[in-house]
Amino acid sequence: MKIMLMGPSWRNQNLALWLTARGHSVLMDDGRKEDRYFSQINPDYIISNGYGPIFSKFVCQSFYARIINIHPAALPWGRGIYPNVWALYEGHPIGVSVHLIDPGIDTGKLLDVEFMPRWERDWRLANPAETLQTFYSHLLRRAEQLFQRTWERVEACDCQPFDQEPLGHDPYKNRAQSEELMRQFPDRWDTPIALVKLAGENLNDW
Q: Does the predicted TM-score (pTM) go above 0.85?
Protein backbone atom coordinates (compact mmCIF):
# COMPACT_ATOMS: atom_id res chain seq x y z
CA MET A 1 0.00 0.00 0.00
CA LYS A 2 0.97 3.63 -0.50
CA ILE A 3 1.18 5.37 2.87
CA MET A 4 1.73 9.01 3.77
CA LEU A 5 3.40 9.28 7.18
CA MET A 6 2.85 12.81 8.44
CA GLY A 7 4.90 14.31 11.26
CA PRO A 8 8.49 15.12 12.27
CA SER A 9 11.20 12.77 11.00
CA TRP A 10 12.71 12.22 14.48
CA ARG A 11 9.40 10.71 15.54
CA ASN A 12 8.62 8.74 12.38
CA GLN A 13 11.89 7.42 10.96
CA ASN A 14 11.76 4.05 12.74
CA LEU A 15 8.07 3.67 11.95
CA ALA A 16 8.73 4.35 8.26
CA LEU A 17 11.39 1.63 8.22
CA TRP A 18 8.99 -0.78 9.91
CA LEU A 19 6.22 -0.09 7.40
CA THR A 20 8.65 -0.34 4.47
CA ALA A 21 9.88 -3.70 5.74
CA ARG A 22 6.25 -4.88 5.61
CA GLY A 23 6.15 -4.11 1.90
CA HIS A 24 4.52 -0.67 1.92
CA SER A 25 5.58 2.40 -0.03
CA VAL A 26 6.05 5.18 2.53
CA LEU A 27 6.22 8.94 1.93
CA MET A 28 7.32 10.90 4.99
CA ASP A 29 6.32 14.55 5.18
CA ASP A 30 5.64 17.36 7.63
CA GLY A 31 4.39 20.92 7.53
CA ARG A 32 1.07 22.40 6.46
CA LYS A 33 -0.25 21.07 3.14
CA GLU A 34 -3.05 22.17 0.85
CA ASP A 35 -5.91 19.75 0.24
CA ARG A 36 -4.82 19.13 -3.33
CA TYR A 37 -1.46 17.81 -2.09
CA PHE A 38 -3.19 14.80 -0.54
CA SER A 39 -5.52 14.38 -3.52
CA GLN A 40 -2.63 14.37 -6.00
CA ILE A 41 -0.68 11.72 -4.09
CA ASN A 42 -3.87 9.79 -3.32
CA PRO A 43 -2.43 7.41 -0.70
CA ASP A 44 -4.19 4.31 0.55
CA TYR A 45 -3.68 5.55 4.11
CA ILE A 46 -2.53 8.73 5.82
CA ILE A 47 -0.89 8.17 9.20
CA SER A 48 -0.44 11.15 11.50
CA ASN A 49 2.22 10.88 14.18
CA GLY A 50 3.04 14.26 15.68
CA TYR A 51 1.59 16.16 12.71
CA GLY A 52 0.57 19.61 13.94
CA PRO A 53 -1.84 21.02 11.32
CA ILE A 54 -5.50 20.01 11.45
CA PHE A 55 -6.74 18.05 8.44
CA SER A 56 -9.52 19.86 6.60
CA LYS A 57 -13.06 18.53 6.42
CA PHE A 58 -12.46 17.88 2.71
CA VAL A 59 -9.43 15.66 3.40
CA CYS A 60 -11.23 13.83 6.22
CA GLN A 61 -14.16 13.08 3.93
CA SER A 62 -11.99 12.21 0.92
CA PHE A 63 -10.00 9.70 2.95
CA TYR A 64 -12.81 8.56 5.23
CA ALA A 65 -11.65 5.79 7.62
CA ARG A 66 -8.17 5.97 6.04
CA ILE A 67 -6.56 8.69 8.18
CA ILE A 68 -5.09 7.29 11.39
CA ASN A 69 -3.65 9.24 14.30
CA ILE A 70 -1.08 7.84 16.74
CA HIS A 71 -1.93 9.64 19.97
CA PRO A 72 0.25 9.41 23.10
CA ALA A 73 -2.67 9.84 25.50
CA ALA A 74 -5.78 7.95 26.58
CA LEU A 75 -8.90 9.06 24.72
CA PRO A 76 -11.39 10.54 25.23
CA TRP A 77 -9.80 12.25 28.25
CA GLY A 78 -6.56 13.27 26.55
CA ARG A 79 -7.81 15.56 23.79
CA GLY A 80 -5.77 18.57 22.78
CA ILE A 81 -2.42 20.02 23.86
CA TYR A 82 -0.15 18.44 26.52
CA PRO A 83 -2.74 15.75 27.30
CA ASN A 84 -0.60 13.79 29.74
CA VAL A 85 0.34 16.88 31.72
CA TRP A 86 -3.39 17.41 32.17
CA ALA A 87 -3.92 13.74 33.00
CA LEU A 88 -1.40 13.97 35.83
CA TYR A 89 -2.78 17.31 37.01
CA GLU A 90 -6.46 16.36 36.90
CA GLY A 91 -6.11 12.68 37.78
CA HIS A 92 -7.45 11.28 34.51
CA PRO A 93 -6.50 7.89 33.00
CA ILE A 94 -3.06 7.71 31.39
CA GLY A 95 -2.39 5.73 28.26
CA VAL A 96 -2.06 5.80 24.48
CA SER A 97 -4.54 5.59 21.61
CA VAL A 98 -4.78 4.86 17.90
CA HIS A 99 -7.83 6.43 16.28
CA LEU A 100 -9.36 7.51 13.02
CA ILE A 101 -9.22 11.22 12.26
CA ASP A 102 -12.49 13.07 11.68
CA PRO A 103 -13.12 16.84 11.37
CA GLY A 104 -12.98 17.23 15.16
CA ILE A 105 -9.84 17.26 17.31
CA ASP A 106 -9.02 13.81 18.71
CA THR A 107 -12.70 12.86 18.44
CA GLY A 108 -12.58 10.10 15.80
CA LYS A 109 -13.44 6.47 16.41
CA LEU A 110 -10.85 4.40 18.23
CA LEU A 111 -8.96 1.53 16.67
CA ASP A 112 -7.33 0.69 20.00
CA VAL A 113 -6.51 2.23 23.36
CA GLU A 114 -4.14 1.03 26.05
CA PHE A 115 -4.24 2.27 29.64
CA MET A 116 -1.24 2.44 31.94
CA PRO A 117 -1.89 0.11 34.89
CA ARG A 118 -2.15 1.68 38.31
CA TRP A 119 0.95 -0.09 39.64
CA GLU A 120 3.08 1.32 36.82
CA ARG A 121 1.70 4.82 37.23
CA ASP A 122 2.45 4.71 40.96
CA TRP A 123 5.92 3.31 40.31
CA ARG A 124 6.71 6.13 37.88
CA LEU A 125 5.32 8.74 40.25
CA ALA A 126 7.58 7.42 43.02
CA ASN A 127 10.66 7.80 40.80
CA PRO A 128 12.10 11.34 41.27
CA ALA A 129 13.95 11.01 37.95
CA GLU A 130 10.69 10.60 36.01
CA THR A 131 10.06 14.03 34.49
CA LEU A 132 7.42 15.24 32.10
CA GLN A 133 9.96 14.74 29.29
CA THR A 134 10.92 11.16 30.18
CA PHE A 135 7.25 10.34 30.76
CA TYR A 136 6.31 11.76 27.36
CA SER A 137 9.15 9.89 25.63
CA HIS A 138 7.97 6.65 27.18
CA LEU A 139 4.40 7.24 26.01
CA LEU A 140 5.59 8.01 22.47
CA ARG A 141 7.30 4.61 22.35
CA ARG A 142 4.24 2.96 23.82
CA ALA A 143 1.96 4.63 21.27
CA GLU A 144 4.16 3.44 18.41
CA GLN A 145 4.08 -0.12 19.73
CA LEU A 146 0.29 0.03 20.01
CA PHE A 147 0.08 1.31 16.44
CA GLN A 148 2.22 -1.56 15.17
CA ARG A 149 -0.10 -4.10 16.79
CA THR A 150 -3.12 -2.23 15.47
CA TRP A 151 -1.71 -1.90 11.97
CA GLU A 152 -1.24 -5.66 11.71
CA ARG A 153 -5.01 -5.96 12.27
CA VAL A 154 -5.69 -3.20 9.72
CA GLU A 155 -3.64 -5.12 7.15
CA ALA A 156 -5.66 -8.26 7.93
CA CYS A 157 -8.96 -6.33 7.62
CA ASP A 158 -9.67 -7.31 11.21
CA CYS A 159 -9.79 -3.93 12.96
CA GLN A 160 -13.25 -2.63 13.78
CA PRO A 161 -13.42 1.03 14.87
CA PHE A 162 -15.41 1.80 18.02
CA ASP A 163 -16.80 4.95 19.57
CA GLN A 164 -14.98 6.86 22.27
CA GLU A 165 -16.55 6.69 25.72
CA PRO A 166 -19.02 9.57 26.25
CA LEU A 167 -17.95 11.83 29.11
CA GLY A 168 -20.80 14.32 29.26
CA HIS A 169 -18.38 17.20 28.67
CA ASP A 170 -15.63 18.15 26.24
CA PRO A 171 -12.19 17.45 27.80
CA TYR A 172 -10.32 19.28 25.01
CA LYS A 173 -7.59 21.64 26.18
CA ASN A 174 -6.25 24.28 23.78
CA ARG A 175 -2.73 25.69 23.62
CA ALA A 176 -3.50 28.79 25.69
CA GLN A 177 -4.94 26.69 28.52
CA SER A 178 -2.01 24.28 28.37
CA GLU A 179 0.67 26.97 28.36
CA GLU A 180 -1.06 28.60 31.34
CA LEU A 181 -0.84 25.28 33.18
CA MET A 182 2.84 24.87 32.29
CA ARG A 183 3.64 28.29 33.74
CA GLN A 184 3.08 26.73 37.15
CA PHE A 185 6.22 24.66 36.59
CA PRO A 186 9.36 26.76 36.01
CA ASP A 187 11.36 23.69 34.95
CA ARG A 188 8.69 22.87 32.37
CA TRP A 189 9.49 19.48 30.82
CA ASP A 190 12.20 18.79 33.41
CA THR A 191 9.55 18.91 36.16
CA PRO A 192 9.14 15.60 38.05
CA ILE A 193 5.70 14.17 37.27
CA ALA A 194 5.00 13.74 40.99
CA LEU A 195 5.08 17.55 41.38
CA VAL A 196 2.48 17.96 38.62
CA LYS A 197 0.18 15.46 40.30
CA LEU A 198 0.72 17.13 43.67
CA ALA A 199 -0.10 20.57 42.24
CA GLY A 200 -3.41 19.25 40.94
CA GLU A 201 -4.25 17.60 44.26
CA ASN A 202 -3.47 20.82 46.15
CA LEU A 203 -5.78 22.76 43.85
CA ASN A 204 -8.61 20.30 44.42
CA ASP A 205 -8.09 20.46 48.18
CA TRP A 206 -8.29 24.26 48.18
A: yes
